[in-house]
Amino acid sequence: MDNSFGRKIRDCRIDLDLSQKEMSALIPMNQSNYSKIERGLQEPSIHQLKRISQILNKSVDELLDIDRSAMEEINLKNFQKEFDELYKKYFTSKK
User: How far is CA 35 from CA 26, 52, 54, 58, in A?
Assistant: First the structure.
């Protein structure tokens, strides 16, 4: 399991001089479960992810390494492919 998310939130937490106990209290959640998130053994719930991003003052995209421009490009390519298929189906003459 890739643990870049866990390392990223750990590094951000340390930069803010917060202990795991303090961080887990702010979320709020059990400290041992928070520790599992940092170690990549557990995934946060959507609510926990939102609170973590708020506490660390980082966007969820940034914490999850989501490149919005790349996603938009993929979505555009998928849309174009679907459009082309529909166009061929309905607007090209069948011989």
Answer: 14, 13, 18, 19
